[in-house]
Write a structure and sequence with these properties.
Mean pLDDT: 94
CATH superfamily of the largest domain: tm_1862 like domain
Structural class: alpha/beta
Radius of gyration: 23 Å
Bound molecules: iron/sulfur cluster
CATH class of the largest domain: Alpha Beta
CATH topology of the largest domain: pyruvate-formate lyase- activating enzyme
Low-confidence stretches: none
Oligomer: single chain
Shape: globular
Strand content: 15-25%
Length: 405
């Protein structure tokens, strides 16, 4: 839009407001609706455009939103400026959605500037072929498409030119990177590590599939690669994993964790765990809980299962009560808290390279180690944007305290 002469304005004063929706949970949908109401209430004359995953997955429903002037599915968003200009000319509501097909290719929309000056997120993969029974994402994002290594190289080089030192590679199902181009996630990491100016490379959340020992070993040889692995688990019970249509057992997951720990000195392994999935018995949950304890995650994002319309699991009748979900969430959060504390404690005494970001009100600077442990350091010098050796001297509830070496 900037290229076509539009300028930025806040949502309550803008002539055109684009709401880029997430639809991963029903809560996300509710937030989208709330955002639409709020914008319409505060900015009566704005042209409201709803795009993103919600209209792609629930097109009929979204097209019926009176407050939206334009409803555009994910796949059509590349034409969004043309669509908006058509609306501005005719003032007639436009709703459009293209279906995803197996022939889709990666949509080349790149970003070379972020509000955060130290870390840049580069999307290298879109879509998912997995169809976990609880998940709407494959319907909202289509099949796996990967960014070419050439484009990746150009994009990251431009980011380095703009001063970014840390690159985070992200995707909808990141481990599937390259299944359509005969590359692997390692090839993408290697491509970025080889670019002068890049100091650190890390991965966003990824799935256990295709995380072979060979890939883990190769990653461990890349000096710029950061040993932070957000390896999605969802359940530590193999029976539940099977019902979720996840393609690994708890044991296979554990083997990947062991390989990571074998090749990396001090990796942080974090995860997502869902509790109360349809059919998750008390015993299944206990198994999942014990598994989470055994892995000793650095961090666990715990969330209760909520039925998602349009998914396979939506029609399952065996549903865990809300009270029981709350009980299980609490128990899993306890495990999460303990293992997170244990992990932070294990960092005390180490000397780590910290990339500093911002300064807090109390005068301390916050930065992250290679394994993404948050570190606070008091300093009279401005540490922002610098990579500095820090000795970690203490662990608090959710960060560590260090001193410059
Ligand atoms: S792998 Fe991830 S994105 Fe794909 S269906 Fe499963 S949960 Fe959804």
């Amino acid at each position: 839009m900037k290229k076509r002469g539009y300028t930025e304005a806040d949502a309550y004063n803008a002539d055109i407001v684009i709401i880029n929706s997430c639809t991963v949970t029903t809560t996300a949908d509710a937030k989208n609706r709330k955002a639409i109401h709020r914008v319409r209430r505060e900015n009566k004359n704005a042209v409201i455009v709803l795009t993103g995953c919600m209209p792609q997955a629930f097109f009929e429903e979204c097209s019926a939103f009176d407050e939206c002037d334009i409803v555009v599915g994910n796949k059509s968003r590349k034409n969004i400026v043309d669509i908006i200009e058509k609306y501005l000319k005719n003032k007639e509501k436009i709703c459009c959605k293209e279906e995803y097909t197996n022939k889709d290719i990666f949509e080349e929309i790149s970003v070379d500037n972020f509000s955060d000056r130290t870390r840049a997120f580069v999307k290298i993969e879109d879509g998912c072929n997995q169809f976990c029974t609880y998940c709407i994402i494959p319907y909202a994002r289509g099949r796996v498409r990967s960014k070419s290594l050439n484009t990746l190289k150009k994009e990251v080089t431009a980011l380095c030119y703009n001063g970014y030192e840390e690159i985070v590679l992200v995707g909808i199902n990141l481990s599937s990177y390259g299944v359509d181009t005969e590359h692997t996630l390692f090839d993408a990491v290697k491509c970025v590590c080889d670019i002068d100016g890049v100091k650190r490379v890390r991965l966003g959340s990824f799935e256990p599939e295709r995380m072979t020992e060979d890939i883990i070993e190769k990653l461990s040889k890349e000096e710029k690669f950061c040993p932070q692995f957000h390896l999605s688990l969802q359940s530590g019970c193999t029976k539940t994993l099977h019902e979720m249509h996840r393609h690994y057992s708890a044991e296979e997951y554990y083997n990947i964790v062991s390989d990571i720990r074998k090749y990396f000195e001090n990796p942080a392994i974090t995860t997502d765990i869902m509790v109360g999935f349809s059919g998750e018995s008390r015993e299944d949950f206990e198994e999942s809980l014990r598994f989470a304890e055994k892995v000793k995650f650095a961090k666990i994002h715990v969330f209760p299962y909520s039925r998602r319309k349009g998914t396979k699991a939506y029609d399952c009748v065996d549903i865990v009560s809300d009270e029981e979900k709350a009980r299980r969430t609490k128990l899993m959060l306890n495990v999460a808290e303990n293992s997170s504390k244990e992990f932070l404690q294990s960092m005390v005494g180490k000397c780590e390279q910290v990339l500093f970001e911002n300064k807090l009100k109390d005068g301390s600077f916050v930065g992250y180690t290679k394994n993404y442990t948050p570190i606070r350091v008091i300093s009279n010098d401005n540490l922002s944007g610098k990579i500095i050796d820090v000795i970690i001297i203490d662990a608090k509830d959710d960060y560590c305290v260090g001193v410059v070496k």
